[in-house]
Batch of 2 targets.
Target 1
Amino acid sequence: MQGPSIEFEHVGLTLGATSILEDINFSIAAGSIHCIIGANGGGKTSLVRSMLGQMPHSGRIAIHWHDNRVVGYVPQALDFDKTLPVTVNDFMGMTCQRRPVFLGISRARRREIDEVLDRMGLAGKGRYKLGNLSGGERQRVLFAQALIPEPALLVLDEPMTGLDVGGRDLLVGSIVEFAGAGGTVVWINHDIAQVNEIADTLTYVDRKVRLQGNAREVLRGGAAAGLFPSLELAGATTS
Amino acid sequence: MDWLYDIPRQYIIGLADEGVIHYTFLYAFVVNGFLCAFVVGPLLGGIGTMVVIKRMAFFSQAVGHAALTGVAIGVILGESYTAPYVSMFSFCILFGLFLNFSKNHTKMSSDTLIGVFLSISLAIGATALLWVSARVNTHILDTVMFGSILTVNDTDMNVLLVTAVLTALVALPLYNQMLLASLNPALAHVRGIKVHLLEYVFVLLVTILTVACVKIVGAILVEALLLIPAAAARNLNRSIRGFVIWSVIFSTASCLIGIYAPMRWDLPVPSGGAIILTAASIFLLTMVIRMAVPRFREAAL
């Protein structure tokens, strides 16, 4: 599997009279883990949604695909009526098969679903009602659906929200494994220490690109400038 | 297509003639009603689950009321006042599409917008019906509003059958996509689903279904048959499979009982009213079961 490389050229986004993004320029290498960081309201989600073709942006966003063009997307949360009669298997089935889920899930798909649920620590929870799961378990289901069919690009919008330490380790392990196999990861992440540990490159967005480049170098520079008060890095002065 | 109905019709009438089933089935219109019930029940029960998930009950009510205006327009334009399908379909489809377009292009919440459109459609319908009331027997309008199997003929059955086939052909392959688009539009979009287009498709399906079922259930009550069986099924189920299957069963049973009971016991109730009262009884029963039985109580959590 080989993930795509991505280029952002002069990307802008204006909604009504509000400028959300201005002249965004950076690129993401194939097979890398690229984190997008920044304050709330800085335009991170809008940037990712522009990349996914969901926002009327200006400029150019080029995704250079290889054979596999599948995008696995993990939204921030699954905001739905929790009383709806939808099981975990129903949800997984509706994302990856054409046959109506009320007619059952094909054997091949069932195997794949069981396997990813198992990998996410959700073995045996396929028949649970989605609304009855804890927030962390639902996040893991959201991550699991992004892995079927096998994606070349993983787009993650703060997937760690509500996860306990075990859940975080599980997801981080899967993300690193995915990138190690050649997949590209675009990840909106607020956890600076985690970004420092895992990301290859990062972009710090606050309407414009404020910082961009190798993750550890950018973070060291940012920490020295007092941009990341919670981050303690060797050789960097923290405020 | 009349031969299609003649075969089961003659068979059922034959059974009644031999005393195997109740003599009520000697009447062709009762058999027609039953044949329609086997189409309307599964159709509205199945689509009703999506109406509940998408929270569009109010929308189908607005379309049902728009059918009244469609009837009035049909009479004004000289269509048969017992089956003004061209005007009903045309007006209701335009009404549904415009409503959805307005919803997508304004920042208003859908319940407010549907409320506004519902009031407008009722006002136009009432005005137009008053205008045409001098030209037709106003009892015909009762048929449109509350349904009557006495007036169901082969044309109505043709309209229903074509609508049913069309709905099944469109809705079955798109069911998962509609479901996912309702739960998370952004995720659906990434999966290649055309979320807005699907919304329009669903609006069209609900609209043509509503119009096609007007003769059987009535314009005022067809929305209830989309909603109540699905709501009853939701009371007892925790999976989509159970939800859809039980909704179809409840809806079909309501139609069959609602058509048969007034004939069998000579009750002065229109078919639409009887169907909805049956569905409402089933809903109340499922509510009691849900409250009384712990296993089902969990389904609602």
Target 2
Amino acid sequence: MERSEGRIHSLRVEGITKRFPGVLACDDISMAIGEHEILALVGENGAGKTTLMNILMGLYQPDEGSILINNEPVHFKSPRDAFEAGIGMVHQRYMLIPNLTVVENIALGMKEAHKKGVMKLGEVRRKMQEVSDNYGLHVDPEAYVWQLSVGEQQRVELVKTLCYGARFLILDEPTSALTPQETDELLVLLKNMSKQLSIIFISHKLQEVKTLSHKVSVLRHGRMTFSGDTEKYTPAELASFMTGTKVELPVNERIDMKGEAVLELKNLKARSDRGFFALDDLNLTVRAGEIVGLAGVSGNGQKELAEVINGIRRLEGGEIRFFGENIANLTPGKVIEKGMGYIPEDRNTEGIVPSFSIRENIILKDNTTGKYSKKRFLKLGTIAEVSDRLKEQFDIRCPNTTTAAGSLSGGNIQKVILAREIDRSPRFLVAVYPTRGLDMGAAEFIHQQLLELRNKGIGILLVSEELEEIMNLSDRIGIIYKGKIMDVLDGNTAEIKTLGLLMAGVKND
Amino acid sequence: MTKQQFSLVYKTTVLLIAIAAAALLGAMVLWAIGAPVLKTFLVIFLEPLKSFYITTEVLIRLIPLVLIALGIAVAFRSGILNIGAEGQMLMGILGATIVATQMPGLPRFAIIPLSMIAGVIFGGAYGFIPGFLKAKLGVSELLSTVMLNYIAAQTYILCLRGPLIDPAELVTGSGTPQSIRFPRQAWLTRMVPGTRLHTGIIIALVLAVVIYFFLWRTSWGYKMRAAGAEAKAARYGGINVSAWLIIAMVISGAFAGLAGAVEVLGLHRRAIEGISMGYGFTGIVVALFGGLHPAGIVPSAFLFGLILVGGDMTQRMVGVPVNMVQVLQGIIILTIVSVKMVINNPYIMERAERRFNKSEHKKSEEAQA
């Protein structure tokens, strides 16, 4: 297909249906987006938003229905066809190759950058610079992708898409990894960009949908249940369209548990994968029965902090006092034995073994203890019973507990992890981005579980980028910036504005 | 047609097409070298099973293949690709030979287990080297195991030419590299009179069951499989991934070593040159073909044993060289492995089902009209 430089005046999908084995992912969906319009596509996890967008991007072929650009039917056999028609997408799970640098990743999809087997990285760099300057998206072209934080990787994705000459942007939950300031900037940026192109914007955050979009479409169980002009509806109304019921996120009552300090982090120093000090003299204390929210832009040492506490990363200085005992640089197994619970950032390949069944994942940390084994033989009966109970208790939606955990949706994977960690009755819990990318229903459930744990007197260190989550749940809020705690605020009195400034490294004395 | 019915019909059809495709490709090869096509196939797959004696020969080849493949399955499931079974097997033969020839005074109940244990230790130690290098220094096991195969092959011959050589060979001056014949009490019992089938088959089958229980019913096996399936998650779960990697390689090497010991005690009764017959490599194919699961490995080993024996027979009966049979073997493996991917892909099946239903629908409409 020849690259058409023409503008996209309208994009329509008509009667799109897509089936997967056992699932109807999209059921007769029709919608239309005009030039300079921003359409927000909202819906819970598993509602079919991502599938629909993957069809638009040529990653999947629809079983029925058609796509029309400027009223002409088009067929995208591969993502390249879609790129060439001018459609660009930033996926929720970033499509980057970790072992390549940023500029190499961007060069991958640019035909003109590797003509006749010769890589013209200079050209790509220049193009990147152009896009970066134009939109204020700054990334280091020479950094390896694996070295970047999630937020930085998303910026790479945006730059990549724009470098490919996208004139129609699809953004799959673009703000889920950004700070409030960055989110605001992105929203302004997108609004400006809509003067030149059209945008489909997938989101859970209805406030953003409200500020940014002109039109909104709601998907539920693969069907389009609502479609209309954004300005006519309040976020609360949109939320009820989305879930069918009203959802209210639970809030910490902040009844003081007066617990003793259970996790004391003193002068922690640790290096990141790139070799610099990601934790630089960090101090923080968490008491029993309180949730300490750790707010910050991703990449400021949150990941390293969680790994150091759990023995996965080497601590180079300082000490970690856990119930008075120094647990610095114990093996992960020993830290687990001390009663530490941990919900890791990467739920898909760290929190679970994806090819293992739900049952096998439930016993990940207790396969040698008396709970699930006797003289090293696994108690298969007990394991099945406990798993079935946890499936009910934590509302894990799956055919049965022998299903491979990796085949579940993000929300259900997180419930499996949560079920395992809570059922182990931990003495403390480190929860890293526990609701990232989850829908309101799943987030509500996880928040309730965390609060219940807190009210039982368990201390929780909650790492999050979503200020609403931090404000709702935390007794105290620590702000991390460049490996240091900028300040610790009281959860009752903290203001979003102050938090945002501290997260950006600005401290008002 | 219900979903289950369709699934069954679909899978059978695909399998039949695959067998037909493999047969066709094989026929083309045979035709190209001017061999009688049909007769060659019949000889490979049916001739060995026509006689009881030759069937036992197939089972004899199954023994080392099962043992090696079980070890390979343990390693692969734990995330380390052991290509070194050939070398580990030779080391096992060496270990067993040393015990059997150097302690000829031992009674039967001691000499057999001790020889086998020596084989296990030699093979296991030889598996430890690449495991340790991988776990501690990140040396690719593909590289180290393949190189260690060369070292093992030369060491083996060196021992047979030197310290272990049968003194009779020196006297007669023929100098064939082989050890002395093992004392009679070190021989494994031949189970059926008039055949060479020895008790090694019981060891192989029992260990297949043991490995199943080990991998899927114990916390050790669980840890190894977790480390192999997703090392990051295993580490998060408190599993010492690098330690289990080494253990997996030791077990894998020990199985190859045992295969060597059983082979030399049961069949040859002396260490000779060329004894491993490439079992260490065929064992990898047997393991993968059997889905890295004992229940698949045993039939898979039977199939490959059949092809090995059948290949020998084609050479004698229809004049097709054994090398050509290996080509056929390669074609069959490639076809069946590709087909397995198709059968196990739910998306392709779903699409086929929809197309099938559509055409059925159309037919019934036409019939009504």
